[in-house]
Amino acid sequence: MAEKIAFGVDVGGSGIKGAPVNLDSGELIEDRFKIPTPQPATPDAVVAVIAELLDHFGLAQDVPVGVSFPGPILSGVVTWIANLDQSWVGVNLAEAVRQGTGRQATVINDADAAGYAEVAFGAAKDHPGTVAVMTLGTGIGVALITAGKLWPNAELGHIQINGRDAEKWAAASAKEREGLSYAKWARRLQRYFSEIDRLLWPDLIVVGGGISRKHDKFLPLLHLRPKIVPAALRNTAGIVGAAVLAWQDAASAQAAATPALRSDPATAD
Questions:
Q1: Fold identical between 5-111+235-249 and 126-231?
Q2: What pLDDT shows up at residue 256?
Q3: Rounded to the nearest 5°, which phi and psi values hold at 184?
Q4: Nearest to 239 by CA among 4, 13, 24, 32
Q5: Nearest partner of 53 among 15, 17, 11, judged by Cα
Q6: 3-state class (DSSP) for residue 201
Q7: CATH C-level class of 5-111+235-249
Q8: Residue 18 has pLDDT above 90, yes or no
Q9: What residues pair up with 108 in beta bridges, in sequence order?
């Protein structure tokens, strides 16, 4: 069987990373290549870096490409942005990548990409129910997957907790900014995750982001109804998720373009 390959790009505030992914295993085929995010991170500058990543790996033209991006995306268009240049708002990212690289690309919110990767290959693999994948970093990213179906752009890091935007109060950046101990930070996470549980009733919560490497310091302090576990893929999740979804889009497009075989009664023997 031919190896299923797609290319994933993960656009971040400090770096833009890419690698080809084996979609049978979810593993990177080559080490990811990272280029610092240009400053200012305008659409033209970021797309130029994506083109450089693609050139670096010398990919065949038919390899599907997925781009994970730090903002909500509707029909390929960036609707809001926090950590890149504000000129992104209203830009059709899919079209910008096509013009800048000559390739069609699937574009997806970064939390959604990471969450889908955890369901496809990571801590939530084969889970039949509703999974909430939460990435704790500069903000709080949230992906919701129910029975394998992704519900995109769930910006639940911005729900109000005690009259404040949750991610400004409970993200990993808040812990660092305020010098909180893990115990004090866990109390904020308890309040936040309890609210998520009250609103969504997930069967499983998966916690990702760089700080998930130290999950043993705070996850045991949480007492929640759903099971809560650390993410498995960590810093490759955005790349893997973008690649998986790009492959699925390419397969769907190919199926739609292939005429169904049928017998014609007028010509049948």
A1: yes
A2: 83
A3: -70, -40
A4: 32
A5: 17
A6: coil
A7: alpha beta
A8: yes
A9: 68
**Cα 72 from Cα 25, distance rounded (Å):** 28
- The domain defined by 126-231 folds into Nucleotidyltransferase; domain 5 (3.30.420)
Residues 6+ apart with CB under 8 A from 265: none
**Domain ranges, ordered by start, for the chain:** 5-111+235-249, 126-231
Kindly report, residue by residue over 233-265, the tens digit of the pLDDT: 988 999 999 999 999 999 888 888 776 545 454
Q: Distance between CA 256 and CA 127 in Å, rounded?
A: 29
* CA 16 – CA 69 distance, rounded (Å): 10
pLDDT of residue 14: 87
Give residue 103's pLDDT.
95
Query: Cis omega before residue 40 (within 30°)?
Result: yes
Distances (CA, A) of 241 to 67, 217, 254: 9, 27, 20
Using CA atoms, how far apart are residues 136 and 167, in angstroms rounded to an integer? 9
Q: Tell me the one-letter amino acid at 9.
A: V
| 72, 89 contact by CB (below 8 A) | no
Distance CA 240, CA 116 (A): 9
Taken as a whole, the chain contains a residue count of 269
